[in-house]
Design a protein that fits this description.
heterodimer; A: mainly beta; Ubiquitin-like (UB roll); 5 strands; B: alpha/beta; TIM Barrel; five-stranded parallel β-sheet; 10 strands; globular
Chain lengths: 72, 257
């Protein structure tokens, strides 16, 4: 049986190991990220939320997920 | 009395008090205080989502962005690049175009870096943002920001969180006299009367966070600020009397016995 390749990525500054070829959509769904309330950056570029299913994560990708919190 | 709207980037607001949502004990206290303040605009920060603890309450659960205008802010950004990145992300969250730009230059005073601020204002305006700009109380810089396309000029009263109140009334009045843009005092107010002073100088509004959130009774202070802003505005619109060094009798002289 072919061994599933794993890759390391960074999400909000923390390392995470995921299966190779995972789409950003599947990954964020697993994390239960409320997509409507966040913005997503992949390697410092803003991701269009309509394209999440088309984006496959690669080794060393850096994802940032942000939302609004209290501030002055 | 005719309606007296605060107009920012073609949006009309009844309240002239903008409040920050930082530094509260919890979200519930924050939401109750905002409600009592009567504010229709709240500043919010853009930060990383807590991926590991999804049960943490969200600001949007307490303050509905459909009912109150969220003003995304770049607090904590010390250069143009970070500020632009933050506001582009903020727009992506839900289409926010009205934003507060704050580029700090010094960690001790939290004074704004006006060179980076001006640069960012130009870029953001070109990208279609309506930028409310936190700035020093320098009339020349205020004019440059206006020329760069700012939607509101927001000079500090005193350093952020200092509670010192308006330190340079003359500069605020000079800025008032030279601009038709909304002029909003942002940062440094300490108590409700400071807001009335700002409004009496002709400012269009005030932005308050620490003075309310860190007061012993934030909700009561929110109400005090609300009333003070209204009082100051009405006082300004009423046209104050001339100052005089000498007394002027209040009662008529005629008929004195």
């Amino acid at each position: 049986m072919k061994k599933i390749k794993k890759i390391k990525i960074k999400i909000n500054g923390k390392l995470s190991t995921i299966q190779d070829n995972t789409t950003l959509f599947i990954y964020l769904k697993k994390l239960k990220v409320p997509l409507k309330k966040v913005a997503i950056e992949l390697n410092q570029e803003i991701v269009n939320k309509n394209h999440l299913k088309k984006i496959k994560l690669k080794k060393n990708d850096k994802i940032e997920i942000v939302h609004f919190i209290g501030g002055g | 009395m005719k309606a007296d709207w605060l107009k920012i980037a073609n949006k009309k607001f009844n309240s002239r008090l903008i409040v920050g949502t930082g530094k509260y004990k919890n979200m519930s206290e924050c939401a109750k205080t905002v409600k009592l303040s009567g504010s229709e605009i709240v500043t919010v920060a853009v930060r990383r989502v807590n991926i590991t603890d999804k049960n943490k309450p969200l600001l949007t659960d307490y303050l509905d962005p459909k009912k109150i205008t969220y003003l995304p802010n770049t607090a904590g950004c010390f250069n143009s690049k970070d500020a632009l990145r933050t506001l582009r992300l903020a727009r992506e969250i839900g289409g926010w175009k009205l934003v507060k730009l704050e580029v700090l230059g010094d960690k001790k005073t939290l004074y704004p870096d006006m060179i980076e601020t001006l640069k960012s204002t130009k870029i953001l305006t070109k990208e279609g943002f309506n930028v409310m700009v936190y700035c020093t109380d320098d009339p020349l810089m205020a004019k440059k920001l206006e020329d760069a396309g700012a939607s509101a000029i927001m000079p500090l009263a005193a350093p952020i969180g200092s509670g010192l109140g308006i330190q340079n009334k003359i500069n605020i009045q000079i800025i008032r006299s030279q601009t038709k843009l909304p002029l909003i005092i942002d940062a440094g107010l300490g108590q409700a009367s400071d807001a009335a002073i700002a409004m009496e100088l002709g400012c269009d509004g005030v932005l308050v966070n620490t003075a309310i959130a860190m007061a012993k009774k934030p909700m009561q202070m929110a109400l005090a600020f609300k009333n003070s802003v209204i009082a100051g505005r009405q006082s300004y619109l009423s046209g104050r009397i001339q100052k005089s060094f000498f007394g002027k009798a209040t009662s008529p002289k005629k008929g004195i016995i």
